[in-house]
Amino acid sequence: MRLEGISAAVTGGASGLGLATARKMIKAGAQVTLIDLPGSAGAQVAQELGDAARFVAADVTDEQQFASALDAAGETGPLRALVHCAGRGAHIRLVEKDGQPGALKPFEEVIELNLIGSYNALRLGAARMARHEPVDDERGAIVLTASVAAFEGQIGQIAYTASKAGVVGMTLCAARDLASKAIRVCTIAPGIMDTPLLGGLRNDVRASLEDSVPHPRRLGSPAEFGALACSIVENPYLNGETIRLDGAIRMAPR
């Protein structure tokens, strides 16, 4: 599928991996709708990106808001690509240092955003793509975001790991489910990426993280994530696969 001229939506598009993806898509000629929370910098970012970008505020766990945002994305043309980057983590231990059981609410919140939000992206995005006529034998492509934590979750990442492992588990199933609609599904599992979330790290901590990556010995660039997302959308034979983008890192227990 050529990105030039298509309508695409990117969740979490106001910053980090989502913003980098939107930039790459716009450079390739797509019309991109950034979907992010009302309190995000989405409106300012869309203005900076130019006429090919627009911002719609929505919570991806809210069915009505997310559906309306995807409908808005379809106003610039049939929605052909959806890259779902919205998500977050929480530090939870099963038994805390004071002997109390790990908190339940933050676990539920991470599952709701990362896993249920991804399910919402799949079902709501695919339903809209399925209405369109195929172009070059396909109607659309959906790219989800997991993490290497889906495979090597570290201590304290149990909520994040469970949610991202769920995303990986859905990928092939979703691709098979949507094959009859000519819609592809793939997932990117990034390693340690140089996003704003890591911007406040001390230099020594950052150096230690970089040293844990075999090659290249540095943090991943959001632009590299965006480039891979665009490649997935453009390559019609990529389907049902989770692709690690991690410099060959394998996470230690802590």
List the keywords.
alpha/beta, 16% strand, 254 residues, Rossmann fold, seven-stranded parallel β-sheet, globular
Walk me through what this model shows.
- It is a single chain.
- With 254 residues, this protein is of the alpha/beta class.
- The protein has one domain (7-245): NAD(P)-binding Rossmann-like Domain (Rossmann fold).
- The protein contains seven helices and seven strands; from the N terminus they run E-H-E-H-E-H-E-H-E-H-E-H-H-E.
- The protein has helices at residues 16-27, 42-49, 63-73, 105-129, 158-178, 203-211, 222-234, and strands spanning 7-11, 31-36, 53-57, 79-84, 140-145, 183-190, 242-245.
- Strands 3-2-1-4-5-6-7 form a seven-stranded parallel beta sheet, with helices on both faces.
- Helix 1 packs across helix 7.
- The radius of gyration is 18 Å and the shape is globular.
- The mean pLDDT is 96.
- This is 3-hydroxy-2-methylbutyryl-CoA dehydrogenase.
- Belongs to the short-chain dehydrogenases/reductases (SDR) family.
